[in-house]
Design a protein that fits this description.
The structure holds 2 protein chains of 2 kinds. Chain A is mainly alpha-helical. Chain A has 4 helices and no strands. Chain A has one domain: ACP-like (Non-ribosomal Peptide Synthetase Peptidyl Carrier Protein, Chain A, Orthogonal Bundle), CATH 1.10.1200. By secondary structure, chain B is an alpha+beta fold. The relative contact order of chain B is 0.24. Classes of the chains: A mainly alpha, B alpha+beta.
Chain lengths: ~80, ~130
């Protein structure tokens, strides 16, 4: 799957989980840039992403992500 | 802590004290819940119990009936499929549908059946492990 397609699908998941259709993600986006992306919603986002892409992350992997792009990069290697 | 397929059951009774306590706590005296004549007129055999009483039972199940109390409720979804009446005996059956080790989250699918084995509600819960 291409990087842009992964980003688009992740964006749709963010919009759904955070109930905000206006969210626009870029590879550089961090939690500081998105309203309501906090430690609790982060868990819900990870669960939704794992289900959507039918994959599992490692806990250490998740904590190492610095931005959305690093998350998408891991997804790209697994799908 | 949880694994896909883990299954739990818990019995509950919608006693008069649960019913009265719910009304006392939340002040919902809608006639469907409090006036038998009105409930009959609308096709029910008696006053219908508040659906959210079942959410109270779910709260008890999550907080007190799992192998660990170190959990937090993330999301909860419920569908009511049959009315519940005073003094109904309900059985809650919950099964772990998935477990996300990375974020220590368990997804449960559950349902309630009454003493006639009628499914009165069903839904999903997402719990985080603390």
């Amino acid at each position: 799957m291409e990087s842009l397609e992964i980003l688009n699908q992740v964006t749709r998941i963010f919009r759904d989980v955070l109930d905000n259709p206006g969210i626009v993600l870029a590879h550089e986006t961090t939690a500081d840039d998105v309203d309501d992306w906090d430690s609790l919603t982060h868990i819900q986002l990870v669960v939704a992403i794992e289900k959507h892409f039918k994959l599992r992350f490692a806990a250490a992997e998740i904590s190492s992500w610095k931005n959305v792009g690093e998350m998408c990069e891991v997804i790209g290697k697994r799908v | 802590m949880f694994a896909k397929g883990d299954r739990y059951q818990q019995e509950y009774r919608v006693s008069d004290s649960v019913y009265q306590g719910f009304i006392r706590s939340f002040q919902d005296r809608n006639p469907l819940h409090t006036q038998a004549d009105y409930a009959h007129e609308k096709g029910f055999r008696d006053v219908v119990m508040h659906g959210n009483i079942l959410n109270g039972f779910l709260s008890h199940f999550v907080g007190e009936c799992l192998p660990t109390r170190e959990v937090i409720l993330h999301t909860q979804q419920i569908q009511f499929t049959h009315p519940v009446y005073r003094n109904d005996n309900l059985r809650l059956v919950a099964e772990v549908e998935d477990y996300h080790e990375s974020v220590r989250v368990a997804e449960f699918r559950y349902y309630f059946v009454n003493q006639l084995e009628q499914k009165v509600a069903r839904g999903k819960l997402t719990l985080g492990c603390l």
